[in-house]
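One-letter codes give the sequence; backbone shape is given numerically. An example follows:

. . .
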Amino acid sequence: MNHNLRVYWDNFLMKTNRDKETKCFEAFYFGHNEQTATHLLELVTQGKKTATASCVYQYELTNSEYPKVGDLSIVTDFNGNPKCIIQTKSVLHLKFNEVTYDICKREGEDDNLESWQQNHIEFFTEIGKELDFEFSFDMDVIFEDFEVVYM
């Protein structure tokens, strides 16, 4: 964790009276480019985006832990500047083609299932190019509900 993130995290722990040993699950920005990251961060800070979807391959191919209920993460802008801290409230494992509009609308990004699918096909295809996997409709995704606990 870089210095700016460490200072932000330490301030969060102090101001919320949390144990100094509380771990940060990850620091990240939403999306895969600056325009998307800026838009999604705005939705998060406005309370419109309260969920996110990720691909199981991302965790497996980077030897990363799966998110779990209670995890705390720093959300940054595209340049890595901390903007808020979220806490995972629920985690759902399912196939991409099992995601319904009732599930995906919590992401706050799309007006219908088709739009969500198109945007996430593009996103998972880009991630796949980076990590060497191919998108498929039956691939496993992790759908995570969260709440902003600090700004």
User: Anything to note?
Assistant: The radius of gyration is 15 Å. The helical segments are 3-15, 34-45, 56-61, 101-104, 113-131.
